Amino acid sequence: MVLVAFMVTGPEAAGDAETSSKRKLIVVTNNHTSYLSLRCFSFDNAFDVQHLNSWEQFKFMVDVRVVFPSATMWNCSTNMGTFVAFRHDYACSNHPSNTCQWRFDEHMTYVYDPTVALWVAVEYNPNYESLNRGGVIRGYYVN
């Protein structure tokens, strides 16, 4: 009788734990002293352009694919270039905290590495996305 009860509740509880560990919160912060624009997108989803004041944040949840987790990738585009905001092999993606944090300004992007508790500079990528999926957005910033 006890075995039957475990069989009914066991896999369900394990499935819930697996599902909850497969979501990550991405936090992107405007690190510049004034207004900058940002648009984040994946191959499946896209958000509208966000206009962020200095130190304002844009947050979104990523559902990491259970099958082929390497196919889960989110890009963010600014008027200075693009950067990959989430990939399965980033330090934050495998860290117990459910957050991947980014800062961006007119020169660089910075990702928080929770394993060493430091912000790491990352150069903007060239515009490698197709124009209809994103690429570098038209935006303006004021110095």
From TrEMBL:
<dbReference type="GO" id="GO:0005576">
    <property type="term" value="C:extracellular region"/>
</dbReference>
<keyword id="KW-0964">Secreted</keyword>
<dbReference type="Pfam" id="PF05938">
    <property type="entry name" value="Self-incomp_S1"/>
</dbReference>
<dbReference type="InterPro" id="IPR010264">
    <property type="entry name" value="Self-incomp_S1"/>
</dbReference>
<keyword id="KW-0732">Signal</keyword>
<protein>
    <recommendedName>
        <fullName>S-protein homolog</fullName>
    </recommendedName>
</protein>
<comment type="similarity">
    <text>Belongs to the plant self-incompatibility (S1) protein family.</text>
</comment>
<keyword id="KW-0713">Self-incompatibility</keyword>
<dbReference type="GO" id="GO:0060320">
    <property type="term" value="P:rejection of self pollen"/>
</dbReference>
